[in-house]
What does this fold into?
Amino acid sequence: MRAHALRVLAATALFAGVGGCSDPVTSSDLRAPGDASPALLSGILTSVVQRVVPLRQNYVASATIGTAGGTIRIPEAGLTVTFPAGAVSAPVTVRATALAGSNVAYRFEPHGLVFQKEPVVAQDLSLTGVVNQLLTAQLAGGYFADESTLAGGKVVVTEERPASLDLLRLRMTFTIRHFSGYAATQRKGGYMGSSNTRSMNPPRYQ
It folds into this structure.
């Protein structure tokens, strides 16, 4: 699998140009026109990045994060969450759960926890089906409020967090403002509006 990842990296370097692999590539297409802030959506049906080898069970990690910040990792899922200094005003115990199955999706708790400075979520993509599409993939961190909408390789999200790609490390990163459910998403599906109708056209941003 590592040899496969290196072949992908070599192909990426050929297209990206000299020095292109040393700098993260931002998926700027995920930002609303004229606005670098995350997109708030009425409900978008989008595809979830899939693991090559599904997780047989939930994997859980927890840590107490203080005002100095900290890190939480789930190696089995390729997840790292880094909390900067000042993310919380008092120590809080946080919990991350990598959901079993093929979806690159997580439950973060305590639900509703809002951060004063945004943590960074990093996802290893080397063992996912998107590794062959890094030059064209439209990736984002997708917030989902209801795990029941996570099915069939798709999920309904109400907020998209712009993602950056590190082609050298084969990983994506995005920031989050609050805790709940998040998935690594890939723009494949259509959009779901308030009337539950699907369209290939994006909703209007507020």
